[in-house]
């Protein structure tokens, strides 16, 4: 394998000023075993009319990073460094009341468990109207009319009647639409959707993702889609950040990333996506899996955190943390041998493979 490049390439320059720019974000949790770092130096940017997918396994830090941006971290967690700038204002430097004012109006979030997020003892109409009355000062009648408009926007059938119903009377997909309507109530500039299709069947997943894409395009919002499934983002995302063990390991536009991943972890994720190729010929193949497990935040390995599971790891990978650098234009990869991975070159026999 060729020698790693030590020259750090600059971040790709975007044509537009980002709506949201997260820089060097780090989040720590206090646990009985001590302090653990859940997010370590994460940076990304979200532009108007574009969708950023943040992809990673459970425990990668993707959801924690969004909770930090929204000011919703639990008491045991804290941001130790970094910034999250919305149109130039650092959300992480605001007082809690100011932060709440921004997050909910200018930045909103759709949570993965719609049933838990909705209050079971109030109608969905009540929950939408109370938020509108509190935030916008609307009359009860105007707030109800706006709630019906929002349910229409997210394609809830017969919205005028269903606004009187309770969350348990909605299917999982329809509850998720109600959550999207709630998030859109204040006309946010950026929408963060945290695993919005969890526990939904494949058909409903596609419908919810298509709905988000349509609303995002119509409003030119910035959309952050957080998911563990790289297979769902191909048709909706513009850019992808792949996270592993609290760090971004690859960042790229969606097309180049799918065509030629520049990090072994991304490549392994793509290989593990089920495919129907060869099904018409009766061909069967075993679905590839990534060996091992993601490391615990309390006991991460030295060097590259992915090296114990990596099929091209060398001695260097066990001792030095690879920086997030650019092996190609508009590509960033945290791999010592990113250029080789991008070119799909096998490791040289002279190194020591894991």
TrEMBL record:
Region of interest (Disordered), ranges: 279-303
Chief localization: membrane
Origin superkingdom: Bacteria
UniProt xrefs under SUPFAM superfamilies: P-loop containing nucleoside triphosphate hydrolases
Cell location: Cell membrane
Topology of this chain in the membrane: Peripheral membrane protein
Residues annotated as signal peptide: none
Gene Ontology cellular component terms for the protein in this record: plasma membrane
Domain (ABC transporter): residue spans on this chain: 20-270
Family: Belongs to the ABC transporter superfamily.
Name listed for the protein in its UniProt record: ABC transporter ATP-binding protein
Record organism: Promicromonospora citrea
């Amino acid at each position: 394998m060729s020698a790693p490049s030590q020259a750090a390439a600059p971040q790709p320059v975007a044509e537009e000023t980002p709506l949201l720019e997260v820089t060097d974000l780090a989040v720590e949790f206090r646990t009985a075993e001590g302090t653990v770092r859940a997010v370590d130096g994460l940076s990304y940017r979200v532009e108007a009319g574009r969708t950023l997918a943040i992809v990673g396994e459970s425990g990668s830090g993707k959801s924690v990073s969004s909770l930090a941006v929204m000011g919703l971290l639990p008491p045991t967690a804290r941001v130790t460094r970094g910034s999250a700038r919305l149109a130039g204002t650092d959300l992480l430097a605001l007082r809690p009341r100011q932060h709440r004012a921004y997050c909910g109006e200018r930045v909103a979030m759709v949570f993965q468990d719609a049933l838990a997020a909705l209050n079971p003892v109030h109608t969905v109409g009540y929950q939408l109207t109370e938020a509108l009355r509190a935030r916008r000062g609307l009359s009860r009648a105007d707030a109800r009319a706006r709630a019906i408009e929002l349910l229409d926007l997210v394609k809830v059938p017969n919205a005028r009647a269903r606004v009187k119903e309770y969350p348990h009377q909605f299917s999982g997909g329809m509850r998720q639409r109600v959550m999207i309507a709630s998030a859109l109530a204040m006309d946010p500039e950026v929408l963060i959707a945290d695993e919005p299709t969890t526990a939904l069947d494949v058909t409903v997943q596609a419908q919810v993702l298509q709905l988000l894409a349509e609303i995002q395009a119509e409003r030119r919002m910035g959309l952050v889609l957080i998911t563990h499934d790289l297979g769902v983002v191909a048709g909706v995302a513009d850019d992808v950040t792949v996270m592993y063990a609290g760090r971004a390991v690859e960042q790229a536009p969606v097309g180049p990333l799918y065509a030629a991943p520049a990090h072994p972890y991304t490549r392994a994720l793509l290989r593990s996506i089920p495919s129907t190729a060869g099904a018409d010929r009766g061909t069967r193949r075993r679905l590839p899996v990534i060996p091992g497990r993601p490391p615990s935040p309390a006991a991460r390995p030295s060097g590259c955190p992915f090296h114990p599971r990596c099929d091209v790891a060398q001695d260097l990978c066990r001792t030095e943390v690879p920086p997030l650098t650019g092996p190609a234009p508009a590509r960033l990869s945290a791999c010592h041998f990113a250029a080789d991975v991008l070119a799909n070159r096998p490791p040289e026999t002279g190194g020591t493979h894991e």
